[in-house]
Amino acid sequence: MTIAQKRPVGARLDNSFISRLKKQFPNLIPPAVAIAIFLVLWQLFAFIPGATLPGPIQVIQDTWILIFWPFYDNGGIDKGLFWQILASLKRVAISYTLAAIVGIGLGILIGVNQTMSKALDPLFQLLRTVPPLAWVPISLAALRQNEPAALFVIFITAIWPILINTAVGVTQIPQDYNNVAKVLQLSRKEYFTNILIPAALPYIFTGLRIAIGLAWLAIIAAEIVMSGIVGIGFFIWNAYQNNDVSEVILALVYIGVVGLLLDKLMAWIQHKILPAEQK
To answer: 21, 170, 222, 242: which could join 153 in a potential S-S bond, CB 3.0 to 4.6 Å?
Structure first.
């Protein structure tokens, strides 16, 4: 009689992680090489006499406190980069959620109503081209406070790709689907949940992914203009006013990383929710 030896669970997990890492390693080499080349070229340009921007080495030397202590909080607007980014992300989360709810709802209404679509499409096409910074003075004049004004700027910037893509998705539902719904005599609720939403979902997610990037750009622009609020945008403006170019560059890196992570998050959610045939 022999006793079967079971492999430890931890070892299986470690091997699984290592195997996934090995599969991803070839995909990591090209971007790593590109980043390394960029940093080398940047540093070489910084060595040129008369260069006005610091190189990556100088940036790290000037901002190492901000890099290694992102959680400090001295009160007011004197906070570490973690709290600055968190404040901006909170504003984005609030306004983006509201933009998604309103944008998807209006997009569905416009998609199923051709008269409403023809009436409102020119207005929507006009408003969606207005850049975020142009909304800042209007929002400040109307709302009188920085915080609600910033939330409005994010909302009005993010809503258009969601609304327009949702409306397009509804209008692109195959006629065969509508014919089947009529034959089966589906109720409005059944048509909405079983036909309309599943068919329009890829378009909705396209709008949501575009909108999350625009929302992140909008809050940075709004915070740069609005003074006295905690946020990564105001952090950039304050650093510029104090001639701390290295801090500005560091903040730009953080902004880019957060924007990339937000897009990857939306892509992951899309991958999990969409059926395999719609991916």
So the answer is: 222
Instruction: State residue 18's pLDDT score.
Output: 65
* 168-193 core/surface letters (b: 16 or more CB in 10 A; e: else): bbbeebeeeeeeebeeeebeeeebee
Is the separation of the CB atoms in 195 and 132 below 8 Å?
Answer: no
| Whole-number pLDDT of residue 207 | 93
Q: 7: which strand partners?
A: none
Query: What span, in angstroms and rounded, lies between the C-alpha atoms of 172 and 226?
Result: 41
Burial classification of residue 77, based on how many CB atoms lie within 10 Å of its CB (0-12 exposed, 13-18 middle, 19 or more buried): middle
pTM for the predicted model, two decimal places = 0.81
Q: How many CB atoms lie within 10 A of CB 206?
A: 18
CA distance 267 to 256: 17
- Adjacent-strand bridge partners of 92: none
pLDDT score, position 252: 92
Give the whole-angstrom CA distance, residue 250 versus residue 61. Answer: 11
Class of domain 90-231: mainly alpha
3-state SS assignment for residue 73: strand
Query: What is the pLDDT at residue 182?
Result: 76
**DSSP assignment, residue 230?**
-
Series of mean pLDDT values for 10-residue runs along the chain (279 residues)? 48 58 71 87 85 86 87 81 91 94 92 83 86 86 86 92 91 77 75 80 92 90 78 88 90 92 90 70
Length of the chain: 279
Q: How many helices (H) and strands (E) does the chain have?
A: 11, 0
To the nearest 10°, report the CA torsion of 240, 153, 205, 85: 40
